[in-house]
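Hi support team,

I submitted a single chain yesterday and got back a structure, but I'm not sure I'm reading the token output correctly. Could someone confirm the output below corresponds to the sequence I sent? I've pasted both exactly as they appear in my results page.

Thanks,
R.
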Amino acid sequence: MHVLNDLLAAPAAPISFDTFMAVDIRVGRIVSANPFPEARKPAFQLVIDFGPVIGSRKSSAQITEHYTPDGLVGRLVAAVVNFPPRQIGKFRSEVLTLGFPDQNGAVVLFAPDQDVPLGGRLF
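Hi R., thanks for writing in. Yes, this is the structure output for that exact sequence:
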């Protein structure tokens, strides 16, 4: 339970709706997922299709506890698409794939529970 208590922090300070809307969260479909053995923490290299306006983007995601590469392909996920890219070793991660911690701190992906158009924005 200690890990869970560490993850259940107090709410962040209030922000304006405009500040929230500055974070561009979109839905995409994972089109490829590969092991990322060079990462410091276990991770996969994902390619996510966000539809015709945004296109495909790459993401390094530490989601190896609950997912396999084969099980990820075709899944809908949510990601922040307007953070600056991060260089992780030789891999350039272009979006932040979103998830929530389970009781042990492992990532559980955040996704819509129905099929929605790729590139749709969270509001």
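A quick pointer for reading it: The chain has a mean pLDDT of 94. Let us know if anything else looks off.

Best,
Support desk
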